Amino acid sequence: TNYYDKVPAKYADYNARQFREEGVRVVPPASVRKGAYIAPGVVLMPSYVNIGAYVDSGTMVDTWATVGSCAQIGKNVHLSGGVGIGGVLEPLQAAPTIIEDNCFIGARSEVVEGVIVEEGSVISMGVYIGQSTRIYNRLTGEITYGRIPTGSVVVSGNLPSGDGKYSLYCAVIVKQVDEKTRSKVGINELLRDL
């Protein structure tokens, strides 16, 4: 395949021995730009990882997921199909998006603009979180921005306007991760060894 880019592909000249030595699994047509760090034990399904991104060990970047420039993905994270993790280049952002260890990000979700998802959190499918997204905690009634607390389970939702005439999108923390939640997302561990 012929292509042209200012930044070469990280694995363009790798052979099977080099992949084994680095301990990474890259399923074609996954694309990683040079300058990204991919730790041993990472599985990259057909996905895209941009320059400066950091993907730590035991993480799976599933089909058509994108890890933006300088984004930081922790250990044992699952980025489900079509997930978008925002970068810092376009539009220019001051801080990287961070997904901490042991998080599960559901299919077609987007986490962008330097948002931090703290350790052990589960983001349901189709949740969009940027710096201006209201994050509503169902248990406390608190509204926050830019950070998902440790061990949160988050779904998409809406909050009504003060006059009740309309509602606007928000992310809702519905509960803390429990054994039932872990069992639902735990099947991914079995699939990584196939």
Describe this structure in words.
There is one protein chain. It contains 3 helices and 22 strands. With 194 residues, it is mostly beta strands. The protein has a single domain, classed as Hexapeptide repeat proteins (UDP N-Acetylglucosamine Acyltransferase, domain 1), CATH 2.160.10.10. The strands form 3 sheets. The chain has a 10-stranded mixed beta sheet with strand order 1-4-7-10-13-16-21-22-18-19, with no helix packed on it. It has a 6-stranded parallel beta sheet with strand order 2-5-8-11-14-17, with no helix packed on it. The chain has a 6-stranded parallel beta sheet with strand order 3-6-9-12-15-20, with no helix packed on it. Strand 18 and strand 19 form a beta hairpin. The longest helix has 7 residues, at 16-22. The mean pLDDT is 92.
